[in-house]
């Protein structure tokens, strides 16, 4: 399922990621990366950075969440 998702949503849209930061947080991995590619960028910032949260169990990805973190207005 993951291969099909990435083949369609990332490879098909020629998405590139420029890794900005990698954090090991108690065994979970956080990857902050700037995304670019040929996808629809309407209403996205020029520097489109998202954070991927990987949970690794027994050497395999157990869960993955990708979030567009925005600075707090406060």
Structural account:
- The protein has 74 residues and is mainly beta.
- The protein has a single domain (2-67), classed as Roll (Nuclear Transport Factor 2, Chain: A).
- Helix content is 14%, strand content 49%.
- It has 1 helix and 4 strands.
- It has one helix at 2-11, and strands spanning 16-25, 28-36, 49-57, 60-67.
- It has a 4-stranded antiparallel beta sheet, with no helix packed on it.
- The longest helix is centred in the first third of the chain and has 10 residues, at 2-11.
- The model has no long low-confidence stretch (mean pLDDT 86).
Give a brief outline of the structure.
The protein has one domain: Nuclear Transport Factor 2, Chain: A (Roll), CATH 3.10.450. It contains one helix and four strands, in the order αββββ.
User: What is the CATH architecture descriptor?
Assistant: Roll
Count of separate DSSP helical elements: 1
Q: What is the CATH topology descriptor?
A: Nuclear Transport Factor 2, Chain: A
Strands, count:
4
Mean pLDDT: 86
Low-confidence stretches: none
Distance between the termini: 39 Å
Multimeric organization: single chain
Classification by helices and strands: mainly beta
Strand content: over 45%
Number of domains: 1
What order do the helices and strands follow? Answer: HEEEE
The level-1 CATH class: Alpha Beta
> What is Rg?
14 Å
Strand sequence of the main sheet, in spatial order? 1-2-3-4
Q: What's the overall geometry? A: flat
Largest sheet: 4 strands, antiparallel
Helix content: 10-25%
